[in-house]
Amino acid sequence: MFRNFKMVSRVIFGRGSFDQLAEILAAQTGGKDPSAVFIVDQIFKDRPLRERIPAGSRDMILWADTTDEPKTSVVDQMTAQVRDRFERLPDAVVGIGGGSVMDLAKAVSLMLTNPGSAADYQGWDLIKNPAVYHVGIPTLSGTGAEVSRTTVLTGPQKKLGINSDHTVFDQIVLDPELLAGVPIDQWFYTGMDCYIHCVESLTGTYLNAFSQAYGEKAMDLCREVFLEDPPDGEDKLMMASYCGGMSIAYSQVGVCHALSYGLSFVLGLHHGIGNCVAFDYLEEFYPEGVAEFRRMMEKHQIELPRNLMAQVDDAGLEKMIDVALVLEPLWENALGKDWKRIMTRDKIRTLYQRM
Ligand code: NAD
Ligand code: ZN
After folding, report:
1. Does residue 216 register a pLDDT over 90?
2. What is the C-alpha to C-alpha distance for residues 158 and 297, in angstroms, rounded to an integer?
3. Which end of the chain, C or N, has fewer beta carbons within 10 A?
4. Does the CB atom of residue 69 touch ligand 1 within 6 A?
């Protein structure tokens, strides 16, 4: 069976395109004043972008704290706040931020129309009802969250996405100007998420010409951005993230992402940095990708945290292995149908112990 995957319905790209947001939202309600919930990274509370958010008295702004990656409990709490504020459902949920905030916006838009807790829907295709119309506006590029059919959440038991067709944004606004001012370490870690998506997609067993076409383009753009510093690097990184996300939409990620989920669940390490930590030890699986990644790290003088396992006891390590092993499609993509014979608990333990 071929996957019939849902794509983002509308895309706007260009420097300054953020200022078309009011018009885009109005078009959604046929000219009537829409009511919208803006979920915005709290870093913008005292930045000029705040004044450009087209929020009026009918609307609501929820400032998102991204110290921790999104939790199901935070999604439940934000959903309750929105329900309390509006008599009927809002017309739109808009997420403005990096992958964390875009994922929060996706999750809240889903939970407004589906009963229970976000934790009930962590998995594949468990969502029954379409979400409230939702818009993603990245201020950090690399995760591909702007195009993916998942919202990655940490729940009481697991770190796992709500994967469904309804998760996909109805509209994204890609404005490269919003990437200005990202600190270099964060720029690198999130950008490397995209680079690693490409490596894992292009070397995976799920690869087809569709994901290869997007993956190769994203890879070329990453090489330009991280090895050559082009003048329009923000535009290129934004498109790399988009294409990298499109590539994995029709394939999958692999070993690095599976291990990174475990690091993040137990150590609270963020996705981008967790990927970088894990990838540096995966020469055995991705020799060329790891060598090029190290050249990129060297060029930008990035120092990764080391000796992380010193903080993890045996129970923590076993939990990491459990979290990584749940992600069966990732292992199958990386290692083939027979992956369980190659990637045993012992093998995963050895990999983690090096980190
Ligand atoms: P992030 O959203 O967690 O943000 C990282 C930091 O960058 C935060 O401190 C934030 O305040 C700051 N930041 C954001 N924009 C900024 C800007 N313009 N200027 C200065 N600082 C800014 O980082 P991320 O790497 O984009 O996202 C990681 C999250 O995305 C994780 O929760 C991960 O699980 C998720 N993710 C989701 C998908 C998906 O398909 N849904 C894919 C990969 C990762
Ligand atoms: Zn990723």
Report:
1. yes
2. 31
3. N
4. yes
Contact 133, 106 (CB under 8 A): no
| Claim: this prediction has a pTM higher than 0.70 | yes
> Which residue minimizes the CA distance to atom 2 of ligand 1?
98
Task: Decide: 151 in ligand 1 pocket, CB within 6 A.
Answer: yes
Reported as a pLDDT band with limits 50, 70 and 90, residue 81 is very high
Which 3 state secondary structure label does DSSP give 154? strand
Burial 197-222, CB ≥16 within 10 A → b, else e = bbbbbbbbebbeebbeebbebbbebb
The per-residue pLDDT for range 128-140, each reduced to its tens digit, is 999 999 999 999 9
- Looking at domain 184-353, its CATH superfamily turns out to be Dehydroquinate synthase-like - alpha domain (1.20.1090.10)
| H-helix or E-strand spanning residue 314 | helix 314-325
Asked if 164 and 127 count as a contact pair (C-beta separation under 8 A), the reply is yes
Which residue's C-alpha comes closest to atom 17 of ligand 1?
A: 182
Residue entry with tokens 């300054």: 16
- Give the tens place of pLDDT for each residue, 299-336: 999 999 999 999 999 999 999 999 999 999 999 999 99
The three-state secondary structure class of 180 is coil
Residue ranges per structural domain of the chain: 10-179, 184-353
Q: Is 78 close to ligand 1, i.e. is its CB under 6 Å away?
A: no
Structure tokens at 79: 């959903």
Return the amino acid letter for 98: G
